[in-house]
């Protein structure tokens, strides 16, 4: 058995995790989120500096949590992209140094494959065929997955404009709710009425792209509604709940449409936005109605973390994949 150390530094979270044969042994996370709040979004240079400070202490903390020493590590996996260039470089350089010093193989991994692999830590190996909905700050994609490491993943659809998480973050700003917007809107919506405002359900009309997403029009609809002045008695919480309902409606509708079209009976929802309580609840309700099994990682494994990178590294090791060449670069944009 090989213990894989996973390192994640693609955005504002410094994550380190240890996985062996599909089992999470322990992990640790350090976030620079608080340093970005006053800018209303992640500042790449600040994130990169924070990774430099946090990386070694986070490795140490994760080792402690997993009750391991560095000598136990048999392979290193690191997010090579997509993500913020300066932030990725910190993790990639550190991972190369650890792999060289420990004389173990090194795997450059795709951040989104890591998000999908996070679910296997909780629910075991993925079934032979499933639809994966990835919803994060930078991506909104439907994928047909037969094997996370061996068979090419079939890309079913993407967003034409904003990612779902981006829409949450921008709408939160419009509503005067703190960054990051997803958790703020989720919290505010709990005391709001999701039927208060009938926001559009983008790309759900007849003749529209059956599986594609678009959230920029919805974001603009919320901004216009706020500019015009909400109707009497409509609160910020009501607007947050109504916006969230629209996103949850569209995401779950399209994800189940993809399951039907691909004749797949398992839906996996991953990425930061999968932490949203309404999306989780509506997805469960609609999957139950459709006879589809829903798999969503626990909340703490939905947002960026090191455990998910160790998880995809572990799958690569188990599949006998060749390690990455020593000179592999960080790749801020990869398909
Ligand atoms: O996967 P992630 O941690 O980082 C990226 O790879 O992008 O996703 C971050 C995104 C942010 O846009 C954040 O607002 C959103 O996930 N998010 C949520 C929730 N928690 C995080 N969106 C909706 N509801 C949440 N509870
Ligand atoms: Zn992510």
Characterization of the model:
The protein is an alpha/beta fold and 335 residues long. Helix content is 44%, strand content 18%. The strands form two sheets. A five-stranded mixed sheet has the order 3-2-1-4-5, with helices on both faces. Helix 2 (44-66) runs parallel beside helix 3, helix 5 (164-174) packs across helix 6 (181-189) and helix 8 packs parallel to helix 9. It starts with a strand and ends in a 17-residue tail after the last helix. The protein binds 5'-O-[(R)-(carboxyoxy)(hydroxy)phosphoryl]adenosine and zinc ion (ZN). 5'-O-[(R)-(carboxyoxy)(hydroxy)phosphoryl]adenosine binds next to helix 5 and helix 6.
**How large is the share of residues in beta strands?**
15-25%
| Percentage of residues in helical conformation | 40-55%
Amino-to-carboxy terminus distance: 31 Å
Count of beta strands: 10
What is the CATH T-level topology of the largest domain?
Nucleotidyltransferase, domain 5
The spatial strand order of the largest sheet comes to 3-2-1-4-5
- The total number of structural domains is 2
- What is the CATH H-level superfamily of the largest domain? ATPase, nucleotide binding domain
Cofactor: Fe(2+)
Keywords: Acyltransferase, Cytoplasm, Iron, Metal-binding, Transferase, tRNA processing
Organism: Jatrophihabitans telluris
Protein name: tRNA N6-adenosine threonylcarbamoyltransferase
């Amino acid at each position: 058995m090989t213990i894989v150390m996973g390192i994640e530094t693609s955005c504002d979270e410094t994550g380190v995790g240890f996985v062996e044969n599909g089992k999470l042994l322990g992990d640790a996370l350090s976030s620079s989120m608080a340093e970005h709040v006053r800018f209303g979004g992640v500042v790449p240079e600040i994130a990169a500096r924070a990774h430099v400070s946090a990386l070694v202490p986070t490795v140490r903390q994760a080792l402690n949590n997993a009750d391991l020493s560095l000598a136990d590590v048999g392979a290193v996996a690191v997010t090579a992209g997509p993500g913020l260039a300066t932030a990725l470089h910190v993790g990639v350089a550190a991972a190369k140094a650890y792999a060289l010093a420990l004389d173990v193989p090194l795997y450059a991994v795709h951040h989104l494959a890591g998000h999908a692999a996070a679910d296997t830590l909780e629910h075991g190996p993925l079934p032979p065929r499933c639809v994966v909905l990835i919803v994060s700050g930078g991506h909104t994609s439907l994928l047909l997955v037969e094997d996370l490491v061996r068979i090419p993943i079939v890309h079913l659809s993407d967003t034409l404009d904003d990612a779902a998480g981006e829409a949450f973050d921008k709408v939160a700003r419009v509503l005067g709710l703190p960054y990051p917007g997803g958790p703020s809107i989720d919290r505010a919506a709990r005391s709001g009425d999701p039927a208060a405002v009938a926001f559009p359900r983008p790309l759900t009309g007849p003749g529209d792209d059956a599986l594609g997403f678009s959230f920029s029009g919805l974001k603009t609809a919320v901004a216009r509604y706020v500019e015009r002045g909400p109707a009497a008695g409509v609160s910020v919480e009501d607007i947050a709940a109504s916006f969230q309902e629209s996103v949850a409606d569209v995401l779950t509708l399209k994800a189940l449409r993809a399951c039907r079209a691909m004749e797949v009976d398992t839906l996996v929802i991953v990425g930061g936005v999968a932490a949203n309580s309404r999306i989780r609840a509506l997805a469960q309700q609609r999957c139950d109605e459709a006879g589809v099994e829903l798999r969503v990682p626990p909340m703490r494994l939905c947002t960026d973390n090191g455990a998910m990178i160790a998880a995809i590294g572990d799958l690569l090791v188990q599949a006998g994949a060749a390690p990455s060449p020593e000179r592999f670069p960080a790749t801020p944009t990869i398909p």
